[in-house]
Write a structure and sequence with these properties.
Layout: E1 2-3, H1 5-11, H2 16-23, H3 27-35, H4 42-52, H5 56-59, E2 60-61
């Protein structure tokens, strides 16, 4: 799944560790989501979107699922 997570994180000058701490997950999970190796669970996707003040659809690209 495509995601804008890396771009959003870098725009705020956050490390993966800082973002992980802010949403209650691990740096490894953030890395895996950014590289497309892991799809965030709905609760985690919601936390990430809320952290950036966006909707889930603005952070994650669901077009390949349609």
């Amino acid at each position: 799944m495509q995601t804008k997570l890396r771009e959003l994180r870098r725009a705020r000058k956050l490390s993966q560790e800082e973002l992980a701490d802010a949403v209650g997950t691990t740096r490894q999970t953030i890395t895996s989501i950014e590289t497309g190796k892991y799809t965030a669970s709905l609760p985690l996707a919601y936390k990430l979107a809320r952290y950036f003040g966006l909707t889930i659809e603005e952070v994650f690209d669901f077009s390949e699922w349609e």
